[in-house]
Amino acid sequence: MGFHRMVFLRTVLLTLCIGLATSSFISDCPENFEFLNYTIITSQCKGPQYPPSLCCSAFKQFACPYVDYLNDATNDCASTMFSYINLYGKYPPGLFASECREGKLGLACPPGTAQSDTANTSDSSTFRSIDSFIAVVFGVVLLVLF
């Protein structure tokens, strides 16, 4: 019975570690877009017309705090954010890219709205901390068992 229990525990721990390894906190993005509140967009930008004034205004309210991350070509924040926007809002592909333009460089965020410009922190930083803690705990458990 002891052998079967040990195999079961190792299987469970391996499954949890694989889950952590594929979770969003390990992704190449300094912000965890999975747990953000998308209702600012989904409550205002509704089809079938998707009015550009409402959709773009809501998009800016949501995205501008993360402008530094979204404009950084060394991470995947922009594609990750758009994936979640489309997941939660079921928007047509390219809706925001085609409708929301203010110039050659895209949308202009008001000064002081970027997270790096404000003292506000997002709730997702809490999730990143919890995920990191869980990863450390499972690492220690694995070291003890193996």
From TrEMBL:
Keyword Transmembrane: yes
Transmembrane segments: 126-145
Signal sequence extent: 1-23
Domain GPI-anchored protein LLG1-like: 32-107
Top-level taxonomic group: Eukaryota
Pfam assignment, any one: LLG1
Keywords (A to Z) from UniProt: Membrane, Signal, Transmembrane, Transmembrane helix
Name by which UniProt lists this protein: GPI-anchored protein LORELEI
Species per Swiss-Prot/TrEMBL record: Ananas comosus
